[in-house]
Model the fold of this input.
Amino acid sequence: MATLLPVYYQIKNKIQEWIVTKEYSPGERLPSENELAKIFEVSRLTVRQAIALLDQEKLVFRKRGEGTFVTKDSQLIDSLGLEFSGFMDDLFYQVSKSVTKTVEISQVPASKVVQEKLEITDDTVYRVQRVRELNNYLFAYTVNYLPNEIGSQITREMLLKESMLKLLEVKLGYEFDEAFQTIEASFSDQEVSSRLEVPSGSPILYVERVMYDKNQKPIEYVQSSYRGDLYKYVVRMKLNKEDKEQLWVQKPN
Done:
């Protein structure tokens, strides 16, 4: 079962959505902590944690005695990228915010790497190539590799209406349970540059992900190239107290 985001982080995401969609304009005052606590039915402390995160990311600023205001930096708001914090729920939430602009579906030879990732022996797989948009920016070029029994059920029209994740889980009934993802900094090659309309050699974040169902069977292998100026990866780390104590134990000479 997917792990739920902490309540304060859910509230932070919601307020950020208000800012991105211009429900609250740049420079506009947000509801007070008391008002937000009533809206979300939580304590002021929880709201304060959410506001603190937004403040750290410079999406809001505070005036003593006046309240919390949306940043006046319109460029920052318009260029807000995806934030993945390691929770499956967050992955679904963020993907749902993007819009698919182009889709290409074809059956291609299955490379050794693709066969290993999908744990199949088939000679062919379905490849889905998409360019996605966020806040009117082309921000991601994604290639999905799907086993034949899955890929044969997917059409271009479906993907122009729904995200791949939602389509696979809601429409086709595959229940995701886990994902293994790697991320690395890279530069756009000619193909990626052409798809995202950026100069060749532009910085990108390259992401590979394998999605597994509840039986630990691979459902899809994904390769995504995200524009480095629009994508942000956030990790929340917590150190186990016992582990921390062990770090400071002096080793004998």
User: Anything to note?
Assistant: Residues 28 and 67 are 10 Å apart (CA to CA).
